[in-house]
Structures are given as structure tokens and as C-alpha cells.
């Protein structure tokens, strides 16, 4: 099994995804929020790139959710905090989601055979699902403002470690993948501290969203593996 890690959405090129499974990672917070929404019973998540695209779908009865610069978009039903997506609000609902980086990364990945949404919360289940699809794997870190994000790299390293434990054959990875695997292995007991100290973590702390970081740093607590089917994650 070949595994390639891409450092940010800005480095992603669609031709690198053909005939592969792509796991899009945006720990703080898009893919963590998508997992939380589906866990709360949402019928599906439609990722869109722009606020205008999201507003164009408002009349269809979908809930609108999203953020720009870690803040809820004015007029939207929900932001991008996983704790907002409670069963009372989202059960049975289709949600249109737009975020600064995560939904862009999902769109970049659409040329792949399969697209999954991964985060620390569902890392083990995501690795298992990806292995069962029997394709080489790309771990696309969404990043932050077109740059590498520490939390996404840590998650990529965790997923690689899980894949090594699952795969009966040798797992080969690019240099960034090897570095992220080493980074995660050295982070034992320090994940929360590392996420709070990351660029996005510090921004969320300033916004009073420490609870989001606490939610997103939990490892392999969910069996939900969002998978893109057409234009919807379910």
C-alpha cells in the first residue's frame, strides 16, 4: 500500500488523486464537525466552496453551516463548531457546509475513486474503511490559510500508524508521511497541548472556543466515517 501525505490544500493537484482513496483531514474543525453532525443523525453534509454557493441552496430547506476565519458566517444556521451539531438541531437534516479550508480540500479531492473525511475522532475507523477500499491512499491535510497545520499532520501520522497495523502488506509512504508518523508517535500524552499551541488552536482560544479543541483532540472515539457520494457526505 502506497500512502502519500499532502501538506495543505494549496499543494493539492487533482491528477494526484486518480484511482486512489483520499482522506481529507481538517481536525480544527471541518472534518471533526462533519463526523459530529453525522453522529448526531444528520442526513448528509453537502460541502461547498463559497458563501454564495451555500446561500444559493438556502431555499431548498437545507441548514446552512460554516465559518470564515473561525467565526460563524452571519445569517447561517450553524457555525463550524462540532458541539453546535446536536441531535435536536440536525437529526434528519441535510446541511450545506462551507469552511475556509476543509470544504475546499474536499472539492479538490473529487477526482479520487473514494473520498473520506478523517479526523482524530474517527482515525481508527477511517483507516479501516480506507484499507477495505483496496486503493493507494492520499492523506490530504487541509491546512490553515494555504499553509501546513500541525493538527492535520498529527492526524495523518495517527492514520498511517493505524494503517500499518491493519495492512497485511508493507506500507510505503512519502517523506512527509514518515515525518508525520514520527511526529504523532512523539506526541504521546501531549495532543491537547499541541493542538492548543497550534496556529488554529491559538485562534480558537482567542475566540473562546477551547471546548472545540477539547472535542477535536479525542482519539478514535467515533465509528462514523463520512464518505462522499455524489455531492453529499454521508
Automatic annotation (TrEMBL):
Top-level taxon: Bacteria
InterPro entries cross-referenced by the UniProt entry: ComB-like (IPR005238), ComB-like_sf (IPR036702)
EC number(s) per entry: 3.1.3.71
Higher taxonomy: Bacteria, Bacillati, Bacillota, Bacilli, Bacillales
Name of the top EC class for this enzyme: hydrolase
Cofactor: Mg(2+)
Family per record: Belongs to the ComB family.
Alphabetic keyword roster: Hydrolase, Magnesium
Pfam families recorded: 2-ph_phosp
Reactions the enzyme catalyzes: (2R)-O-phospho-3-sulfolactate + H2O = (2R)-3-sulfolactate + phosphate
Protein name per the record: Probable 2-phosphosulfolactate phosphatase
Keyword Magnesium: yes
Amino acid at each position: 500500500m502506497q500512502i502519500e501525505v499532502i501538506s495543505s490544500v494549496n499543494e493539492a493537484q487533482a491528477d494526484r488523486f486518480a484511482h486512489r482513496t483520499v482522506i481529507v483531514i481538517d481536525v480544527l474543525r471541518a472534518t471533526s464537525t462533519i463526523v459530529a453532525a453525522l453522529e448526531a443523525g444528520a442526513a448528509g453534509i453537502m460541502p461547498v466552496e463559497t458563501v454564495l454557493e451555500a446561500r444559493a441552496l438556502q431555499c431548498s430547506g437545507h441548514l446552512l453551516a460554516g465559518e470564515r476565519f473561525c467565526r460563524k458566517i452571519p445569517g447561517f444556521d450553524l457555525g463550524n463548531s462540532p458541539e453546535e451539531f446536536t441531535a435536536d438541531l440536525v437529526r434528519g437534516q441535510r446541511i450545506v457546509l462551507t469552511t475556509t479550508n476543509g470544504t475546499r480540500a474536499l472539492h479538490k479531492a473529487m477526482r479520487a475513486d473514494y473520498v473520506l473525511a478523517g479526523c482524530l475522532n474517527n482515525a481508527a475507523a477511517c483507516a479501516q474503511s480506507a484499507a477495505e477500499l483496496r486503493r493507494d491512499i492520499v492523506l490530504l491535510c487541509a491546512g490553515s490559510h494555504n499553509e501546513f497545520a500541525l493538527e492535520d499532520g498529527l492526524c495523518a501520522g495517527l492514520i498511517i500508524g493505524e494503517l500499518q497495523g491493519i495492512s497485511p502488506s508493507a506500507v510505503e509512504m512519502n517523506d512527509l508521511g514518515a515525518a508525520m508518523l514520527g511526529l504523532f508517535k512523539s506526541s504521546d500524552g501531549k495532543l491537547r497541548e499541541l493542538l492548543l499551541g497550534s496556529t488554529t488552536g491559538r485562534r480558537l482560544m482567542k475566540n473562546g472556543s477551547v471546548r472545540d479543541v477539547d472535542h477535536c483532540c479525542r482519539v478514535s472515539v467515533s465509528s462514523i466515517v463520512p464518505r462522499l457520494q455524489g455531492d453529499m457526505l454521508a
